[in-house]
Amino acid sequence: MSQRNLLGGVAVFVVVVALIVVGAAIVPYAQAFTSSEEQNTTNIAKQQYDASELVVTPAPDSGTVTMDSNTESKTVVIDVAHENDVSEKGIQPLVDALVANGHNVKYLTRDDARQNFNSTLRKADAFVVVNPERTYETKQLDALRKFEDAGGRVALIGDPQSAEGMSLFGLFAPMPRGESGGDAGLTSDYGITFGSSSLYNMHDYYLNHQNVYATPQSNSSLTDGVDKVVFRDAAPVSLSSDAGSAVLATGAQTKIETSRQSGPFTVAVQGDNVVAIGDSDFMSTQSAYEADNEVLIGNLADFLVTGDKTEGAPAPVSTGQNSGPPRAPA
Amino acid sequence: MVSKSSNATRKTVYVLALVAAVLVGAFLAPIVSDAVAPEPDRVAVISVDGYISSNTADQLEEDLEEVRENESIKAVVLKVDSPGGSASASERMYLAVNRTAKEMPVVSSVQGMGASGAYYTMLPSEHIYATPSSMVGSVGVRGSKPMPSGGNEIRTGPDKASTTMDQREAQIETLKRGFVGSVMKHRSDELTMSRQEVAYAKVYTGARASQNGYVDDIGTLQKAIDHAANEAGLDNYEVVEKEPANRFGIFLFSERNGNATVVVEKSPVGYDGVRTSEFLMVYGQVQYEDEVIGNVSA
């Protein structure tokens, strides 16, 4: 083999290898360039969703809690003695309104309830009960009856509770299975019962199906100026014909969560000296300024301080105070 | 003698060359054959299994992209057995399936569970099969209630650490509208119920779902494969299966309770981790400290 042929062979080898290497180096760049052109793909997500139809925006909170009444200073007692499921934030707007208008707000502690229940009511003009989880003693219930008979104002406010946990004190007797009727305890005096299951509305609601709207059903001081309120996790309230009037009710498409029974449902009633409301969240700092909740809170505050209670009622009991041990839930 | 020896050497060389040629030929023949032979048409079966996380979505997006780029694959069957999972991951999977369904037939087969985010995923399918005892539906969203903000830190805005109840409910309602809206968009012709009834988020057995329009028919995976091949006009085809990726890592496990815990570096100011809320499209009991549900039984 000549040297010339050998050099020629080597040259061909070098050129071919060089072409392959250079080609291998260029191809990825060419592919990247090509694929970058192809990446201009359809925006499937934008085709599928119209943000303007999806986005839900909470209504801005507005308004202030005001009271129309112009009475002398009254004393409102709020029960926290019966393991009431209520926090300070849960009633702050109501308390603030009362205090700002010159009224006294006192909390009934467990010790007070044991030793001074009667005397506490005697000094009070109104009594507020929110979600009690401990039963009332018979003597306490007697005192409450006399208090109300004497013109003292009573507000009963309760959220849906489990049927098992609703023994309470008779004031808030449960409706069986979240519907109407049932053992009423003292509520038979008032003719009022609270449902144990939540209400919901899949058609007309505020942000969530459990936040139902309620509208006035009759002219009443409690709903004066109210167009619509929002109740979060509301309980139906039922009443006998002589217990007062249904003053707030939900829409017809509202249902009870457990039974799926359709509404409309009464969620607030008002008698001469008693109101019962099937939701406590409306007067919390979170919900107080949604829809016309602040108007309802102001009206409730007015109701509490506009009673005409007989002085000195309820009279002291002759044989000791109502100091027996609390009854265990039934 | 010399001539005989030379012939023997030549024969040996020829035999060795022949053997070497046969061996090399045997190695190269299938490669060359595969290279020049036309690829058979294929139906890809892709599994959607277990809790849907961001990893599940990554894997499905990757699988479907491969399917779209592979010219031999003419149709896709989603083999679904999942209760759903992360809302954002479910949404991504829905979009990936939607993109694929615009290019080739996609058919779904529910094995045991095709609920919530898993149902969302298969909505763009041309046909959905389920076995009578499988579970389908749960069109809803859930998420934990906002946690109370701590008082031992300084934040640049009131909503930096958490959010309000109203805002959280609005976010969940927004996601619900997207989910329910997609169900109505894809299946309103088949469904026998209204938008509000769908939003109840009920689950149905496959038997019931075939009556109310949540699925198209009772059928097995094989029926779904046949259907997909038929839609693609295939008489002879191969089935290729994509197995689900391993999705039981530590991070995913922590996602299961709805609050993904992201471990950050050990901080000199005492942070051990950050708890962030995650919206879920999942059916079943989830352990929350507190939750908001977008529907009655999501």
From TrEMBL, chain A:
Region (Disordered): 311-330
InterPro entries: Class_I_gatase-like (IPR029062), DUF4350 (IPR025646)
Regions that span the bilayer: none
Pfam families per record: DUF4350 (PF14258)
DUF4350 domain sequence ranges: 85-300
Source organism superkingdom: Archaea
This protein's name: DUF4350 domain-containing protein
Organism name: Haloferax elongans ATCC BAA-1513
UniProtKB/TrEMBL annotation, chain B:
Family, as annotated: Belongs to the peptidase S49 family.
Bilayer-spanning residue ranges: 12-32
Residue ranges, annotated region (Disordered): 145-164
Protein name according to UniProt: Proteinase IV-like protein
Keywords recorded for this protein, A-Z: Hydrolase, Membrane, Protease, Serine protease, Transmembrane, Transmembrane helix
Domain Peptidase S49, first and last residues per copy: 100-144, 167-234
GO MF annotations in UniProt: serine-type peptidase activity
Gene Ontology terms describing biological process: proteolysis
CDD domains: S49_Sppa_N_C
Species assigned in the record: Haloferax elongans ATCC BAA-1513
InterPro entries: ClpP/crotonase-like_dom_sf, Peptidase_S49, S49_SppA_C
